[in-house]
Specification:
The structure holds 2 protein chains of 2 kinds. Chain A is about 45% helix and about 15% strand. Chain A is built from 8 helices and 6 strands. In chain A, a hairpin with a 2-residue loop joins strand 1 (about 5) and strand 2. Chain B has 2 domains: about 5-130, no CATH class; about 145-210, no CATH class. Chain B contains 5 helices and 7 strands; from the N terminus they run E-E-H-E-E-H-H-E-H-H-E-E. Chain B has a 4-stranded antiparallel sheet with strand order 1-2-4-3, covered by helices on one side. Chain B has a two-stranded antiparallel ribbon with strand order 6-7. Chain B is elongated, with a radius of gyration of 22 Å. The two termini of chain B are about 40 Å apart. Classes of the chains: A alpha+beta, B alpha+beta. Chains A and B meet through strand 2, helix 1, strand 3, strand 4 and strand 6 of A and strand 2, helix 1, strand 3, strand 4 and strand 5 of B. Strand 6 of chain A pairs antiparallel with strand 3 of chain B.
């Protein structure tokens, strides 16, 4: 059981929302966030650049799939919001970054969720996130050695390398060198070699050692 | 549509578990045990499935009680939660999942209500769509490229970083010749190879030559 896949960390939360009106308001908040007019509200998330992908899913009891008449229908008073995030860094780095950088944004995204203590001060917020978190049994990332910023910088390297390769093909050596130096200058924030994640915690190191041992025995 | 953001698709499923497994343990315990034994990284069965950026499996036993003064309520079923962030449309992804990870799929969903009717890619797609819940809001903080493009980009970033480091101070003529050799070697427009291996956790085996 692990929420970690290299540099990626999986957070899964389930939080109650008090009734259909509150659920509608929360859905309205997300609807407006999806429009061009209010998209700037996501700038904090984009600037922190810790998240690859995240989603919020609000469900009522009737939304829980019922695949057979013998399966009992769910009968819930609360609506529930499921939150799935794929982010970089440790749990504490993630939670603290958002609490410090966009506290109002978090309070809006979990607006009036049952028991939500507000994102500041941190201690009650930490406790709420911990209490409402579900643990992942299997987590997969297609690029465990890459952070979200690595994916973005890699795209920049690829695009600029293609352009450089095209434009410099017929350059004389001196002109080539000049253009090459300009390329390196423009990529100075993007170059750098990737490597496996450093140890996040002793517990995660123990999990990793166990995994490798299991993988060897499964070969 | 809230399940989509750009070219990325957010698949969220809640698959109800059978009440009994017919074995010595509950369906939830059996699935958890199997999930914990699944290889991770490049050996994960999901690494063979095209265009999945991230995915996770977990068991939802019950909803969370926020303690007094709030109401206590319970789910009547347990659910296998499977969520994936993928590139492109859902149909081709599920088809690929069935094609490339069928033994894993059968093993994990075996104890779910309705899965007994699944016997091919089409019925698997239908089954997953029945278990799907609609995403309210999907945040895409990535580049919106296909997984093959992203993996190739990571490969090029790694290789060009090495190249730039190794060729500092070279003469213009030698540098140009070395760069041309480099481009021939890394094949920037060939997404199939050389590239990075999906799920790789170690630099020793990260490159598909």
């Amino acid at each position: 059981m692990s929420n970690l896949a290299g540099k990626a960390n999986a957070m899964t939360l389930i939080t109650p929302i008090d009734g259909p009106v509150m659920a509608l308001i929360n859905k309205g908040i997300f609807f407006f966030l999806g429009t061009k007019l209010f998209r700037f509200k996501l700038n904090g998330l984009l600037t922190l650049s810790m998240i690859h992908y995240a989603r919020w899913v609000i469900v009522s009891g009737r939304d829980f799939p019922r695949l057979s008449h013998s399966q009992p229908a769910e009968d819930l008073d609360y609506r529930y919001m499921l939150f799935f995030s794929n982010f970089n860094g440790s749990w504490a780095q993630y939670v603290d970054s958002f609490s410090a950088a966009i506290p109002d944004g978090l309070d809006g995204l979990w607006w009036q969720n049952v028991g939500w203590p507000k994102s500041v001060p941190e201690q009650p917020f930490h406790r709420y996130v911990t209490d409402n978190q579900l643990w992942t049994s299997h987590y997969y990332s297609a690029y465990p050695m890459a952070a979200s910023n690595d994916i973005k910088s890699a795209k920049n390297v690829k695009d600029k390398l293609a352009q450089f390769s095209r434009e410099s093909a017929h350059d004389e050596p001196d002109a080539f060198l000049h253009r090459y130096n300009r390329l390196l200058q423009s990529l100075q924030h993007d170059l750098g070699q990737l490597a496996p994640t450093p140890i996040v915690s002793l517990a995660s190191q123990a999990v990793e050692q166990r995994r490798r041992s299991d993988a060897r025995s499964n070969v | 549509m809230a399940n989509e953001n750009g070219n990325a698709y957010a698949l969220t499923t809640l698959c109800p578990l059978l009440e009994v497994s017919g074995e010595d343990a509950s369906p939830a315990a059996l699935i958890r045990d199997r999930l914990h034994r699944v290889n991770t990284g490049a050996s994960s069965p999901m690494a063979k499935v095209p265009n999945v950026y991230f995915c996770r499996f977990l068991i939802l036993d019950d909803v969370i009680y926020e303690s007094k003064p709030y109401r206590l309520e319970h789910l009547k079923s347990q659910y296998l939660v499977f969520e994936a962030s993928l590139h492109g449309k859902l149909g081709p992804y599920l088809y690929g999942m069935w094609q490339h990870a069928q033994p894993f799929v059968r093993s994990m969903w075996q104890f779910c209500v309705g899965f007994s009717e699944v016997n091919d890619a089409a019925s698997f797609t239908t089954y997953i769509q029945k278990c799907q819940v609609k995403t309210t809001f999907f945040f895409n903080g990535s580049t919106d490229e296909s997984l093959a493009e992203q993996l190739k980009s990571l490969y090029l970033k790694q290789e060009f970083s090495k190249f730039a480091y190794a060729h500092q101070g070279w003469s213009a003529k030698d540098l140009k010749a070395a760069f041309q050799d480099f481009i021939v070697r890394v094949e920037p427009t060939n997404l199939a190879r050389p590239t990075w291996r999906a799920g790789a956790t170690d630099l020793k085996d990260v490159v598909i030559p």
